């Protein structure tokens, strides 16, 4: 039922698109699993609303009409069967007997129709496919049964998603003076001296970041100021001069990637659904600059070499193709012609010339002269969105192959722009193409919605082999890339469940399987880097994964968090003397960078439910991370290699809201504060308990452990604007004071105990 089905689907832009469409409702607000409502207009506009208790989530986007056609075809076929997603109701949706309703208006030849589980015409089996679609829309990070090319979600503004700036503060030094950093909603952020309240720099409301975490620290003799934002970005400034030293751009993600050697340097280019194209060094992850797409983002990228120049092409939802000189960042061409979203690019290098092929949702394939930017041909014949392109070596003239959601692969003569062949090669959707070298010519590899790779001889159109992912692993192939490893062709395949598989293309045997991380894989690139080849992929959540194909070991890259930053910290130096900058996010990851230069050092998943608190310290001479999550569990990690440390005994009730390293007498300890106001101290070397303290029931917002005159004191401030001071060794509460501000940061100083909150600092 892919592509054309003869079903009267209204075209985009008609008046009917606002009236006709499909509506599916599952459950009700009174059920534990809540209510999910899915609507698809006749032009493919999509909206999913989920209501659980008082929590309401809405996501919008655009669905390829091939999906709507398949659903309608299944409804017409009868008895109805399940479409993709038939394996169940993912995402925690309720079982089928909790009440479902399906309505189709204006799209069926016999008139409108409805199904309701509470009637004698219950929702047919295609309801399972709609449940899977709704779950994938609501949680793009979850395994996706629907191929990524079929679904383009609108970006969610952090404010609309309920992610707003919150007040944050940190205490340190600036220019040798005791100082604090304070960020308040709608007021920007700034640095202020503690003695005299002199302003030391900052930003206004136009800073372009919604701060959620702050840190002050030193690295290489320089005082640093770090900010984490609601959009996942982390940026670091010289606290004295105000110069931006390094940072990640938030709210962009990296769903599309490409790679290549640019003037002999291995570079990777990445782009999300909004923002600019980011260039970075493949071997060490150093960010090298941006290629401007006017903030429009890109859905597909490719690298090419033409007339001695390294070029990068990008295209996406705006139907434009942009081409840059990768070495200088200069935009060379803006290619106009497609009538809808561009979903595929491919390049054929011909000495001093190169051809660019582009294709997309309008079903056409266009050829361009990359040297001049001039259009060469428009190839038509597909009746659905073109999902992938690949140039083929045949021993004679090169060919271009294309596949589409109409289930066909077509080949074209590159020089004459003449259609050579077109035939269906799959019962379902074709999602990816690649050309694999074989005996002086190329075999064509197709990837489909079932997760299988099929090798074809394009001269005879006979299948010569396949690579199957295995039973129960039938998630769609979202991306393919071909490269060379140790003189042999290798094939990288990214799947809808987030799995990345590397195959020996000659023997069609598996080399490595990288477990899912960061959501469904959306694009893959292979990059030569010195004596090795790197595998790079973008994911549905915007995370970039970089792997060594020989070992499968992950490599760090400087991408932003895919959710708000919950904490940042500048910590102790590693064995090479580099001070570390750590950031944690609601995406569950911790990123460690070299604090001064920004080089990525480590990325680890600390808590899939989100990291709520973070601290960096030195334990037994090793830089160490402490993380905690919403279940009250605290974890220790080696900050250089990510190895788990000793497990702190016992958890705090509810989410952990603050962490800090310190010394209790001569013991290296970790202090944690919880949402119920309680605090606990652990021995940082073995995780054994070293003290418990009862708070006032409000979440701990700040804490510090300090030796003063041979006595260790513990100070904490909570959400109820109460400050408490304990003798840490005996557990004795020494003082309790009500404050006139929320204690966001506390620190001991010569003048007393400094407390920073909205409005500034006070000293007790």
Automatic annotation (TrEMBL):
Domain of life (superkingdom): Bacteria
Keywords: Repeat, WD repeat
CDD domains: WD40
UniProt-listed PROSITE patterns: CNMP_BINDING_3, WD_REPEATS_1, WD_REPEATS_2, WD_REPEATS_REGION
Pfam families tied to this protein: WD40
Domain Cyclic nucleotide-binding residue range list: 710-764
Cited SMART domains: WD40 (SM00320)
SUPFAM superfamilies assigned: Calcium-dependent phosphotriesterase, Putative isomerase YbhE, WD40 repeat-like
UniProt key word Ribosomal protein: no
Swiss-Prot/TrEMBL WD repeat ranges: 311-334, 335-378, 379-422, 491-513, 625-638, 670-692
Residues in coiled coil: none
InterPro entries: cNMP-bd_dom, WD40/YVTN_repeat-like_dom_sf, WD40_PAC1, WD40_repeat_CS, WD40_repeat_dom_sf, WD40_rpt
Matching PANTHER family: WD REPEAT DOMAIN 5B, WD40 REPEAT PROTEIN
Protein name, UniProt field: WD40 repeat domain-containing protein
Organism expressing this protein natively: Kitasatospora herbaricolor
């Amino acid at each position: 039922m892919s592509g054309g089905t003869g079903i009267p689907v209204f075209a985009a832009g008609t008046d009917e698109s606002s009236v006709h469409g499909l509506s599916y409702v599952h459950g009700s607000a009174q059920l534990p699993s809540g209510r999910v409502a899915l609507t698809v207009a006749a032009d493919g506009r999509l909206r999913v609303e989920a209501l659980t208790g008082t929590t309401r989530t809405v996501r919008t986007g655009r669905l390829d009409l091939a999906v709507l056609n398949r659903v309608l075809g299944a409804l017409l076929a009868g008895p109805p069967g399940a479409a993709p997603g038939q394996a169940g109701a993912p995402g925690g949706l309720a079982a089928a007997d909790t009440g479902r309703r399906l309505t189709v208006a204006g799209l069926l030849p016999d008139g409108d129709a409805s199904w309701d589980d509470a009637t004698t015409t219950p929702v047919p089996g295609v309801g399972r496919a709609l449940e899977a679609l709704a779950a994938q829309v609501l949680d793009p990070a979850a395994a996706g049964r629907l191929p990524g090319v079929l679904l383009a979600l609108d970006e969610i503004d952090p404010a609309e998603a309920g992610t707003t700036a919150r007040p944050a503060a940190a205490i340190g030094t600036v220019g040798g003076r005791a100082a604090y950093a304070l960020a308040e909603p709608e007021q920007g952020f700034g640095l202020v001296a503690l003695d005299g309240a002199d302003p030391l720099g900052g930003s206004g409301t136009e800073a372009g970041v919604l701060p959620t975490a702050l840190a002050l620290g030193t690295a290489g003799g320089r005082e640093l100021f770090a900010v984490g934002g609601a959009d996942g970005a982390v940026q670091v400034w010289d606290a004295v001069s105000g110069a931006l030293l390094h940072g990640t751009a938030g709210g962009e993600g990296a769903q599309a990637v490409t790679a290549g050697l640019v003037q002999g340097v291995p570079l990777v280019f990445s782009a999300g659904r909004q923002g600019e194209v980011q260039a970075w060094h493949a071997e060490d992850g150093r960010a090298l600059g941006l290629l401007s797409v006017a903030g429009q983002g890109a859905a597909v990228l490719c690298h090419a070499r033409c007339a001695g120049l390294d070029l990068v092409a990008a295209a996406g939802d705006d139907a434009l193709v942009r081409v840059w000189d990768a070495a200088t960042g200069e935009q060379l061409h803006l290619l106009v012609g497609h009538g809808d979203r561009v979903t595929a690019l491919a390049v054929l290098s011909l000495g001093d010339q190169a051809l660019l092929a582009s294709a997309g949702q309008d079903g056409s394939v266009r050829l361009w002269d990359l040297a001049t930017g001039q259009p060469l041909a428009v190839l038509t014949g597909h009746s659905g969105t073109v999902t992938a392109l690949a140039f083929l070596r045949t021993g004679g003239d090169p060919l271009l192959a294309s596949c589409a959601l109409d289930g066909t692969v077509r080949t074209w003569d590159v020089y004459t722009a003449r259609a050579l062949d077109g035939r269906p090669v799959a019962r379902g959707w074709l999602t990816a193409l690649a050309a694999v070298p074989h005996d002086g010519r190329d075999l064509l590899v197709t990837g489909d919605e079932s997760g299988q790779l099929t090798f074809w001889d394009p001269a005879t159109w006979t299948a010569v082999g396949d690579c199957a992912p295995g039973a129960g692993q039938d998630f769609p192939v979202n991306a393919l890339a071909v490269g060379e490893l140790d003189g042999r062709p290798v094939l990288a395949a990214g799947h809808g469940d987030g799995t990345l598989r590397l195959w020996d293309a000659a023997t069609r045997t598996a080399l490595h399987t990288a477990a899912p991380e960061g959501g469904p894989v959306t694009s893959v690139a292979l990059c030569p880097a010195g004596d090795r080849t790197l595998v790079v992929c973008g994911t549905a959540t915007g995370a970039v994964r970089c792997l060594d194909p020989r070992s499968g070991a992950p490599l760090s890259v400087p991408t932003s968090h895919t959710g708000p930053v919950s904490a940042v910290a500048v910590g102790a130096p590693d064995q090479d003397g580099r001070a570390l900058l750590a950031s944690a996010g609601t995406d569950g990851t911790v990123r460690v960078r070299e604090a001064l230069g920004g080089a990525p050092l480590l990325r680890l998943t600390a808590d899939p439910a989100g990291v709520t608190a973070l601290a960096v310290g030195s334990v037994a001479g090793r830089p160490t991370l402490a993380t905690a999550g919403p279940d009250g569990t605290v974890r220790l990690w080696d900050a250089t290699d990510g190895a788990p440390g000793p497990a702190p005994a016992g958890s705090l009730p509810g989410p952990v809201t603050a962490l800090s390293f310190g010394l209790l007498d001569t013991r290296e300890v970790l202090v944690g504060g919880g949402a119920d106001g309680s605090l606990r101290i652990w021995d940082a070397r073995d995780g054994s308990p070293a003290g418990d303290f009862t708070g006032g029931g409000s979440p701990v917002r700040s804490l510090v452990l300090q030796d003063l005159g041979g006595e260790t004191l513990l100070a904490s401030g909570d959400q109820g604007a109460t400050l408490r001071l304990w003798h840490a060794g005996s557990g004795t509460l020494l003082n309790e004071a009500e404050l006139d501000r929320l204690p966001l940061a506390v620190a001991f100083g010569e003048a007393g105990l400094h407390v920073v909150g909205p409005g500034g600092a006070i000293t007790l």
